[in-house]
Amino acid sequence: MYIASVLVTICANVVAVIGLALLTGYTGMFSLGHAGFMCIGAYAAVLLNKYFMVPYVFALILGGFASVLISLVIGYPTLRNKLRGDYFAICMLGFGTVVRLVLNNMNNPITNGALGITNIPKLTTLWSALLFMSVLVYFMWNFVNSQYGKNCIAIQQQEVAAEMMGVSIVRTKLLSLAISAFYCGVSGGLLGFWLQYIAPATFSDTRSNDLLATLVTGGTNSITGPFFAAILLTTMLEYLRFLVNWRLVVYGLLYIFIMRFRPEGIMGYKEFSFKKTIQFFKEFPQNRVKIIEKLTQSLEERTKKKNRRSDNRE
């Protein structure tokens, strides 16, 4: 049961992080409030299933579309006024805070204010979570490699040049925001139907920061990078529970270690490939000397850079 709980949490985190990867990594829009979309999706899915008897799968999808609707309401005026960079990030941070505070102050028998919704039917299973995760990762992979995904990458790399080439900046950014909100909404629904309890505090700013940190750890311009990072960090955080509060210190040290030695993330700008991996292990005995030489050269270059920096400081 415990292992199943960890795996379901991994699936939900993977879905949310990959949705954020489209917005932040591929489109270049920094967000600090995607936990708000998870909260909206979770509440919408749970209420539709509990009070309107909507089936589980449709409730999750409609919860995702509820997040899409709110993302369009928030995104159109902000993107229309050309908010970008830190300004957009602050706007999304405010959005996440507003969602949590509104639900905290809705003291009614349905949402139950800050106490949250209890007695939710446990409809999420390990296999349904794996199925949703696989399907959504597959769709995101196809979207990123389609013309729409290339438009997002063009905006991320050079917005002015993309607009001159005929790419609609506002429409493309709105599409990216809506898709990322849908993924986070479905992720929140998966968690809600698994934990059997949701509250505004479940989707605090800390969750938004965790999603962003997982994305940066895996590599912003990659799908497989955040996928592996979500698996690694979720598993590590669970299995370090015996350290009590010190596990968060280890968690932070891991981030520092990755940013120091791998600032572009685990995968960087590359994607994992089974063919290249198999080919690497096949050719490893032959190319072992070359690989060792490359590693020594890279280490020598790093030591030279450190020596130059120390000389410049002196």
Features:
single chain, 314 residues, mainly alpha, ABC transporter involved in vitamin B12 uptake, BtuC, 12 helices, 0% strand
Overview of this structure, please?
The protein is mostly helical. It folds into 2 domains: 2-261, ABC transporter involved in vitamin B12 uptake, BtuC; 276-314. Helix 2 (35-52) runs antiparallel to helix 3 (56-80). It has helices spanning 2-26, 35-52, 56-80, 86-104, 126-144, 147-157, 159-164, 169-195, 205-218, 224-239, 246-261, 274-313. The N and C termini lie far apart (58 Å). It is 75% helix and 0% strand.
Give me a quick take on this structure:
The protein is mostly helical and 314 residues long. It has helices spanning 2-26, 35-52, 56-80, 86-104, 126-144, 147-157, 159-164, 169-195, 205-218, 224-239, 246-261, 274-313.
Give the ordered list of helices and strands.
Answer: HHHHHHHHHHHH
Computed CA radius of gyration, to the nearest angstrom: 21 Å
Q: What can be said about the biggest beta sheet? A: none
The whole-number mean of residue pLDDT values reads: 87
Number of strands: 0
Number of domains: 2
CATH class of the largest domain: Mainly Alpha
CATH topology of the largest domain: ABC transporter involved in vitamin B12 uptake, BtuC
Query: Mind telling me which CATH architecture of the largest domain this is?
Result: Orthogonal Bundle
**Count of discrete alpha- or pi-helical segments spanning 4 or more residues:** 12
The low-confidence runs, each spanning 5 or more residues with pLDDT under 50, are none
Q: Indicate the proportion of strand residues.
A: under 5%
Shape: globular
Work out the helicity level. over 70%
Structural class determined from secondary elements = mainly alpha
